[in-house]
Amino acid sequence: MIKFMTKRKVPLWLAITILLIVFILGFSFLAGIINNTLQEFTNAIPQYKIQLSSRIQVILELAHRWHIPLTLSQEEIMSKFDPSSIMNLVSKLLMGLSGALSNIFVIFLVVIFMLLEMPVAKYKLALALSPDDDLSNEKEYINQVLEGVIGYLGVKTFVSLLTGGLV
Prior knowledge:
One of its GO terms (cellular component) is membrane. About 85% of the residues lie in helices and about 0% in strands. It contains 5 helices and no strands. Helix 4 (about 85-130) packs antiparallel against helix 5 (about 135-165). The model has no long low-confidence stretch (mean pLDDT about 80).
C-alpha cells in the first residue's frame, strides 16, 4: 500500500500516516465488534438460564414418564450451570485476546519503523557492503532484495489478516 501511494506522488510520511490511520480504524472496528458481542452475550445469559431450566424440566418429565430413576432435582442440575463459570471463561478469553492485541501492537510498531527506514535502507546497505565507490551494481542488487522483502511482508500481512479474519 505504501509503494502504491508513493508511486502516485504521495509523500512517504503521508502514506505511512494514512496506513496507520487505516490500521487504527480497523482495530477500533474489531474492538467494537468484540465489545458489542460480549455485551449481547452478557445480557442474554439470564434468557439462556431460563431456556435451560425449561429444557431440563422437559427432560425430567420425560424421564419420569419413562420410569427412568433420576436422583437429581431441577435445582441441583441448574446449580451445575452457574453463570459465574461462564463469565470466568469469558474473562479468560478476554485476557488471551488482550495478550494477542499487545503482541499485535508491538508488531505494528516494528512495521512502522521498518516503513520509515525503507527509503534509506538500500543506500545504507550499499555503503556497508561496498568496498569501493562503484555502487551501481550493489544498489540494484540491494534494491531487488528489498523489493522482495517488502513483497514478502505484504503477502505475509495479507495472509495473516485473512487467517485472523477467518478464525
